[in-house]
Write a structure and sequence with these properties.
The complex is a heterodimer of chains A (258) and B (176). Chain A is built from seven helices and seven strands. Chain A is an alpha+beta fold and 258 residues long. Chain A folds into three domains: 7-59, no CATH class; 64-108; 110-257, 2-Layer Sandwich (Phosphorylase Kinase, domain 1). In chain A, strands 1-2-3-4-7-6-5 form a seven-stranded antiparallel β-sheet, with helices on both faces. Chain A starts with 6 loop residues before the first helix and ends with a helix. Chain B is mainly alpha-helical and 176 residues long. Chain B has a single domain (2-167), classed as Butyryl-CoA Dehydrogenase, subunit A, domain 3 (Up-down Bundle), CATH 1.20.140.160. Chain B is built from ten helices and no strands. Chain B starts with a helix and ends in a 9-residue tail after the last helix. Mean pLDDT of chain B is 82; it is low at 82-87 and 164-173. Classes of the chains: A alpha+beta (258), B mainly alpha (176). Chains A and B meet through α1, α3 and α4 of A and α1, α2, α3, α6 and α7 of B.
Chain lengths: 258, 176
């Protein structure tokens, strides 16, 4: 006598997972039990239907964001950036600690430099980037008045980059307060209403600085300084990957005009 | 990393299909697969060398999918069962089998998540019973009983027809 046929055997039969001898037993059993045979034949048809219905998904070409080689490359880059970031953080800590110690009698130094600028841009974006009612004080239609206002307060010439090629429309701007004096804030939005902003102010330190990414909560930005003016282009986290080329473009335009 | 590429890359179509079958939305399914691949790349060296790579990758994807579905259920995001069968599983509408496929997918969508995963892993992705048990983190016996219940329930739902299976679908379907 062979072992009694179990439901597990019958499912394994449907899935083609039975070994030769057991398969023969199951086939013989199904021949003797047409009702059971009909039920499992139906399961077999269901299985085939699902495979046929879902098969086309696996036949689709793999989209670029799932290209494994790209993902590996992106990871290498980000781990390198992370490592550099860690080194920079250690250095800053060291510098900050030493600086703080040497300045202990003078009191607290106001934060200056490109990192301060980055933080100011993030704060300004966090406030005005979300503002539904009045994101800008002077809108794009009055950009001459806006530029005059900002130039008067910064005592510098400024220009408004045209980012429409990147899909961002100029909305307008305002002067904002920072711990390092007045700054100009230019606001842009895309077709979906997602906003980015450029904050600019004269730099006391870090008069020239290469572009660097910064993050503060949900705000991502790219900050740089050219000839004594500091800039940071900031936006929401969701647009993070798009911001770098936009910042490059803004810098290119401002360099060519000043 | 070379061996990782050689082993994981051929799995991607399967991973996309499994994720989309569970989430019923192409964009979030591909996001999920991307998440999964990033983890696979990051943890490749932590993988048990004697273990089966495909099972390991599917385990990562399955756990991510479960988390995503729980989050979605908690947030109460509307998942329109009827629309997704057309948009997420688009197959050429010229085929005669079309209605048949549609009915099976609608019924599949109405199954509880644990039964759906078993049916997909075994019936569509061709994992063995033992591999499915490893992916789902349950004993083999549980896999077999879920498979049995899933097949019976699916047959019942298909027989009842799409109208009924759509109205008796579980938690994910919400009417606002």
């Amino acid at each position: 006598m062979s072992r009694p046929i179990s439901e597990d055997d019958l499912h394994a039969y449907v899935d083609g997972a039975l070994s030769g001898a057991r398969r023969v037993d199951v086939e013989a059993y199904l021949e003797r039990n047409p009702e059971v045979a009909e039920q499992y034949a139906r399961f077999g048809r269901q299985r085939e239907t699902l495979r046929a219905a879902l098969g086309p998904i696996a036949a689709e070409p793999v989209p670029p964001q799932l290209n494994l080689a790209h993902l590996v490359a992106a990871r290498r880059q980000s781990s390198w950036t992370g490592w550099r970031g860690a080194v920079a953080a250690c250095l800053l800590l060291l510098v900050g600690g030493a600086g703080g110690w040497s300045l202990r009698s003078i009191g607290t130094e106001p934060s200056v430099g490109i990192n301060a600028l980055a933080q100011e841009a993030s704060y300004a974006y966090a406030v005005f980037g979300q503002d539904k009612g009045r994101p800008v004080e002077i809108n794009a239609a009055d950009s001459t008045a806006l530029v005059r206002w900002v130039e008067n307060r910064l005592s510098r010439q400024i220009s408004v980059p045209d980012l429409s090629q990147a899909g961002y429309r100029f909305m307008g701007g305002r002067v904002v307060a920072t711990p390092n004096g007045a700054a100009g804030l230019l606001m842009y939005d895309d077709a979906q209403g997602a906003r980015i902003a450029i904050l600019m102010r004269p730099m006391m330190r870090d008069q020239n600085a290469p572009m660097a990414e910064h993050r503060e909560g949900d705000v991502v930005g790219y900050a740089w300084a050219d000839n004594g003016m500091g800039y940071s282009l900031v936006g929401g986290n969701s647009a993070a990957s798009l911001l770098h080329p936009v910042a490059d473009e803004a810098r290119r335009q401002m360099r060519s005009r000043t | 990393m070379q061996d990782m590429m050689a082993i994981v890359e051929p799995l991607i179509p399967s991973l996309r299909r499994y994720a989309r079958s569970l989430l019923r939305d192409q964009v979030s399914a591909d996001d999920l697969v991307q998440d999964c691949l990033e983890r696979v790349i990051g943890r490749w060296h932590q993988r048990r060398a004697d273990g089966d790579a495909r099972t390991w990758v599917f385990t990562i994807l399955h756990n991510l999918a479960i988390n995503r579905m729980r989050q979605t259920a908690r947030r109460g995001v509307h998942v329109p069962v009827d629309d997704t069968s057309e948009t997420a599983f688009a197959t050429p509408p010229t085929q005669e089998d079309q209605l048949h496929h549609q009915a099976a997918l609608t019924a599949l969508a109405a199954l509880p998540e644990d039964q759906r995963s078993v049916l997909l892993l075994i019936g569509v992705e061709d994992l063995s019973y033992a591999e499915a048990a490893a992916v789902l983190g349950v004993p083999l016996g549980t896999v077999m009983s879920r498979l049995s219940r899933a097949r019976q329930r699916l047959a019942q739902l298909i027989e009842e027809g799409p109208a009924r299976s759509a109205t008796t679908g579980p938690g994910l379907r919400r009417v606002k």
